[in-house]
Design goal:
CATH class: Alpha Beta
CATH topology: GMP Synthetase, Chain A, domain 3
Shape: globular
Order of helices and strands: HEEEEHEH
Strand content: 15-25%
Number of domains: 1
Distance between the termini: 39 Å
CATH architecture: 2-Layer Sandwich
Strand order of the largest sheet: 3-4-5
Structural class: alpha+beta
Number of helices: 3
Number of strands: 5
Radius of gyration: 13 Å
Length: 102
């Protein structure tokens, strides 16, 4: 399998849709960082609110999507963070277009 890159991980995360909003977690601005270490990937992400009932579901879906793109034996770590708090300003231009905001 090809070398794991941040782009590989972000592309995988574009397949993860927030069911409440209908936009992928990358364009929604929920991904705060991606770190690659050999075959392993660590992702820092947040939810739109700490009370989001779908947090565990989105985290598991993100891990599954990433794992499908990693080389055999690669490890995935999803770290849920709350600082800085998510705001609508984090939504990408594509996400805003999908929401009809632009």
């Amino acid at each position: 399998m090809d070398l794991v890159t941040e782009k590989t991980i972000l592309d995988a995360l574009r397949d993860v849709i927030d069911p409440e909003v209908g936009i992928n977690v990358v364009d929604l601005g929920l991904v705060y960082g991606v770190e690659i270490d050999g075959k392993d990937a660590r992702v820092r992400m947040t939810m739109t609110t700490p009370a989001c009932p779908l947090g565990p579901y989105i985290g598991e879906t993100a891990e599954t999507a990433i794992r499908a793109r990693l080389p055999e034996g690669g490890e995935v770590s999803i770290e849920l963070v709350w600082d800085p708090p998510w705001t609508p300003e984090r939504i990408s231009a594509e996400g805003r277009r999908q929401l009809g905001w632009e």
